[in-house]
Amino acid sequence: MDDELRDKVVVVTGGSRGLGREMVVAFAERGARVVVASRKRDACVAVAEEVGRRFGVEALPVACNVSDWAACDDLVETVYDAFGRVDVLVNNAGLSPLYPSLEEVDESLFDKVVAVNLRGPFRLTALVGSRMARGAGGSIVNIGSIEAIRPSPAALPYAAAKAGLHVLSVGFAQALGPSVRVNTVQAGPFLTDIAANWPDGLREDVEGRVALRRCAEPGEIVGAVLYFATSASSYATGAVLRVDGGWR
């Protein structure tokens, strides 16, 4: 996998922190040219400069709010202007705001969650995947969630959007094959900066629900993403790989 990724162009949304940052570092360490896309440009620049300095690769920071349809279009044009192609797209950007109760979820919150977790990945996959299919092919990796199949009342709009993302993976796999593969990594509980704001007792409750009896460190997402990004998964498309510690 290390040699295969050298000089590939890899786009990671939500790439400035958490799981996305771990992915960017992993791809850059293997010689890929990386695009760090996230809402805040300064954060993208910091990660791009870090991996460029550490690994000597080209790293392009792009501010992009994937909930904005036009911003997705601009991201794609920026990347193709800079590199002329995309070999791997990782739809990682996600959002799941807390809310006091389901009846207090307003239209704005609901629409925002769906836009970030579902609409943005749809637009980016449609644009990038179509260009991949007309060119040399590629791999698209969607970062899903255990919430898609084990929804909790505390994150129901997010769960619904992630379930939709799983559907997109299967549909786009059919639409973009045979040269483009589209797969989902279904993530369980990871100790990102978001976990620092979990309510008291939630971590203990979560760890009691998984076979491994612990939450994952952010870097533990990397192996699954690299698997789907490379020919190690050459006969996998429309697939879901659970990386959830054995959630029950």
TrEMBL record:
Gene3D superfamilies: NAD(P)-binding Rossmann-like Domain. InterPro entries: NAD(P)-bd_dom_sf (IPR036291), Sc_DH/Rdtase_CS (IPR020904), SDR_fam (IPR002347). It holds the Pfam family adh_short_C2. One of its GO terms (molecular function) is oxidoreductase activity. The keyword Oxidoreductase applies. This is SDR family oxidoreductase. Keywords: Oxidoreductase. The keyword Oxidoreductase applies. The lineage of its organism: Bacteria, Bacillati, Actinomycetota, Actinomycetes, Pseudonocardiales. Belongs to the short-chain dehydrogenases/reductases (SDR) family. Coiled coil: none annotated.
